[in-house]
Structures are given as C-alpha cells and as structure tokens.
C-alpha cells in the first residue's frame, strides 16, 4: 500500500504524470456522470450527481487547456531535436514522424487563440480556431496510427528474419514488448480519434452523435493506456512507444 502511494506521489510530482492523472479523472468523471445523468428524473439524487460529475469533468478539461498554454516551447524543443529524423533508419517512419510534429506544433497556437477568444481576451471567433485545433489533433492521431502500423511491420520483419535489417539488433522479448506497445498506441489513438471526429462539425461521419458517457469511455480507455505506456517507458526507456507532447488532448 505504501509503495503504491509513493508511486502515485512520484507520478503527480511530474508535469507529464500529473496531466495523465488529471486526464484520466476528467474522462472517468464524464463516463460516470454521463451514465448517471441519463437516469430518469425520478432518481433526482443520481441525476444531480451525474450533472455535478459532468461539470467537474469540464473544469478539469479547462484546467488542462490552460496548462497547455506553456507547452509550445517544449514541443518546439522536441521538434527541433527530432529535426528531419536523421536518426531513423526507415524513411516511412521518419516522414510520418516529421508530419506529426508539424501537426502537433501548429495545434498549440490554434488552441491558444480559441481559448483566448472564449475568455474574451481577444476579439476573434473561437469556433473556427477550435475546429482548426481539432483537425490538427485528429491529423496527429491518424499519423500516429500509420506510424505504429509501419513500426509493427518493421518489427514483424525483424522478428521473422531473426536479425536486425531495418532496426537495431534486439532480443525476442524486446520485440514482443515493442509490438505490444505499438498495438496499445493504435488502440489509444483510435479511441481519441473517435472523440476527435465527434467534436467535428455536424454532418462529418458521427460528429456530435456520441453521448457523454461514450466520450468518457473512449477518453478513459485512451488515458489508462497512456498511464500503462508511461509506466512501461519509465522502466524500459523505449523509443518506439512514441507519444508526442500533446497527443492526449
């Protein structure tokens, strides 16, 4: 018990860890609140609790948006460090990653402008900027799925050849962990992408059709996978389990 508390404290002491915890609580509250608020009006207590949880979730989401006001520089440093991906041995992975970094970098100013407009700090229409940020987020997620699929193909080839042809030499257990990590990344990105499409303008696929509990479910699944991956990355320092600084908006 004490070790679990210490692990949670260490997680909360880091910005990245705290953001993942807030995100998980945010979507978890939306999931439970969405279920409870759907109950009949006769069950006043449950309905009221559900509404409160939805409001709490909205406040946590706003908190994360404000905290992301300070992420531009870290994203820029990440993009600059990666550059054109000279360290990548596969051209497909390299250019997908470069495009992902571009989408991620553009995401931040769009979201900042939308937030500032809603806060009445600037006089612009926030709707189109929220749309731009959602499109960029969805693009980043889609590119992340393509990247993970490409990495899986390379890892399977590596596994079948039993030698490193594209990536460096590694053990079978390392390959298994990497493949599991990429599969988790795909599921996480797909869950987030389903929400990104829901927040697009009506008429685009299933935009606007998700009830609150389903948005919460998709976000909770993605958030829990993110926590699992973070724990795996901290213990394994894996480079293939890619996660951009904002990929969990």
What fraction of the residues are assigned to beta strands by DSSP?
A: under 5%
Note the run of SSEs as H and E. Answer: HHHHHHHH
Count every beta strand, where a strand is a DSSP E run of 2 or more residues: 0
**Tally of DSSP helical segments:** 8
* Spatial separation of the terminal alpha carbons: 31 Å
Oligomer state equals single chain
Strand count, sense and barrel status of the largest sheet are: none
Shape: globular
Helix content: over 70%
Please state the CA-atom Rg, rounded to the nearest Å: 20 Å
Given as residue ranges, the uncertain stretches (5+ residues, pLDDT < 50) are 163-168, 237-243
Write up what this structure looks like.
By secondary structure, this protein is mainly α. The chain has a domain of 168 residues. The protein is 75% helix and 0% strand. It has eight helices and no strands. Helix 6 packs antiparallel against helix 7 and helix 7 packs antiparallel against helix 8. About 5% of the residues have low confidence. One of its GO terms (biological process) is peroxisome fission. This is Peroxisomal biogenesis factor 11 gamma. One of its GO terms (cellular component) is peroxisomal membrane.
Structure in a nutshell:
Its main location: membrane. This protein is mainly α.
List the helices and strands and how they pair.
Blueprint lengths: L1 H12 L1 H23 L6 H24 L4 H11 L8 H28 L7 H36 L10 H27 L13 H25 L13
Helix pairs in contact: 1-2, 2-3, 2-8, 4-5, 5-6, 6-7, 7-8
Task: Tag the structure with descriptive keywords.
8 helices; 249 residues; mainly alpha; globular
């Amino acid at each position: 018990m004490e070790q679990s508390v210490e692990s949670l404290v260490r997680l909360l002491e880091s910005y990245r860890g705290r953001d993942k915890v807030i995100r998980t609580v945010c979507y978890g509250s939306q999931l439970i609140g969405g279920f409870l608020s759907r109950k009949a009006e006769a069950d006043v207590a449950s309905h009221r609790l559900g509404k409160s949880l939805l409001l709490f979730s909205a406040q946590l989401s706003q908190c994360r948006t404000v905290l992301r006001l300070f992420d531009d520089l870290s994203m820029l440093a990440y993009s600059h460090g990666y550059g054109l991906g000279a360290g990548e041995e596969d051209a497909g992975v390299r250019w997908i990653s470069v495009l992902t970094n571009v989408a991620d970098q553009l995401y931040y100013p769009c979201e900042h402008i939308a937030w500032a407009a809603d806060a009445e700090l600037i006089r612009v229409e926030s709707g189109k900027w929220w749309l731009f940020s959602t499109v960029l987020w969805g693009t980043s997620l889609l590119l992340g799925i393509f990247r993970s699929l490409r990495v899986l193909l390379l890892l399977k080839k590596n596994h079948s050849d039993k030698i490193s042809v594209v990536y460096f030499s590694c053990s079978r257990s390392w390959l298994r962990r990497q493949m599991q990590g990429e599969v988790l990344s795909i599921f996480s990105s797909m869950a987030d992408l389903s929400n990104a499409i829901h927040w697009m303008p009506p008429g685009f696929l299933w935009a606007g059709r998700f009830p609150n509990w389903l948005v919460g479910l998709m976000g909770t699944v993605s958030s829990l996978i993110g926590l699992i991956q973070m724990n795996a990355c901290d213990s394994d320092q894996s480079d293939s389990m890619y996660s951009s600084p904002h990929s969990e908006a």
